[in-house]
Amino acid sequence: MLNGGSLPASPTQQPIAATAANTVSITVGRGVSGVINIPTVSVTVCPPGSTSNCQTINNVQLDTGSFGLRLVSSVLNSSLLSALTPITVNSGQQLAECATFADGYTWGTVRTAIVQIGGETTASAGIPIQIIGDKDSSTVPSSGCGSGSAENTVTALGANGILGIGTAATDCGTTCSNASTAANYSNYFSCPGGTSCARTAVPLSQQVANPVANFTADNNGVIVQMPPVSNTGASSATGTLVFGIGTQSNNALAATQTFTTDAYGNMNSSVYNGTTVTAFFDSGSNAYFFADSSLAQCGSNYAGFYCPSSAQTRSITLGGLSSTRASVSIGILSASTLFGNTSNYAFNDLAGQIGGSSSFDLGLPFFYGRYMYYGFATSTQAPYVGFLGS
């Protein structure tokens, strides 16, 4: 397996049991469509002001690299979907969003819902969420909807939805609320009659919101805890998502290192191979993604992934807005070797190519055997990330 190469020692933190009200179980497995390294949780959604007509949706991807809840419309029952009223802007025009990700985009209306996860809940007035795929593909704006393919179905998305719990409170912020920047960069579109959608400015209160930041308690951050897995992969992995940091006896800040970040959780002063890069911890990425010409890329069967002939170790120095600096090492095995066992879905040493050399994506492989901390931006707290586990 190593073929003369070497891998760094794997971290060994074990998740706590997901039995407290401020916890929920995380599952990595085959999921809804057999995509590897997708951590999922269960989320319950209710209409604003109601505790009835609710629905629990399983297999929602846990994504620390985005912000807000997005659910594929086809997984919601018709009664709930009709009770979640679309938000309107600009004198009654339907509000829709094109949310862009590294591999595609989601298109759909923005609606208000109560969100419950584990024993935590948002207030009865609800928060804005995106309903993916509830608008015809013909309404997708011809410009401003990002690159890549549409991910508006369960099959295309690889999950029933996305739960974005990164460091920001909303998914766009002042870029979309300020008319001067929204005109060119807003994710949001005003759709008169549900069609002819045009980019629009949207106040923060109507932007898709991070549910955890809007919980009535334990709302200042999250801890993602994943168990260690074998270097050859595992069929599944079960972790725990803990809400709040320093608010309960089970969520103390015990990070070995913490890094003050920009609003979106990025460590912009990191260094890889002598080059300054933007590094980030992203559970929504199923591999490490970075540029390294010394690593052999796979053929067309595993396009985008690295397939070195022997095990590899690479190190990156992490640095954010504070003076904290720390070097971490990651292991890399050939994707073709790892994918040879088709019953495995959890991998801690899978890596792939990223466009350009300015970013370093520490995806889900980095999370195994660690506690990953995300402190939200608040009026009294700068956003930060951290981890426990070597």
Automatic annotation (TrEMBL):
Domain of life the protein comes from: Bacteria
Pfam families from the UniProt entry: DUF3443
Protein's recorded name: Gly/Ala/Ser-rich lipoprotein
InterPro entries: DUF3443
Keywords, comma-separated and alphabetical: Lipoprotein
Entry keyword annotation includes Lipoprotein: yes
Organism from which the protein derives: Paraburkholderia caffeinilytica
Keyword Lipoprotein: yes
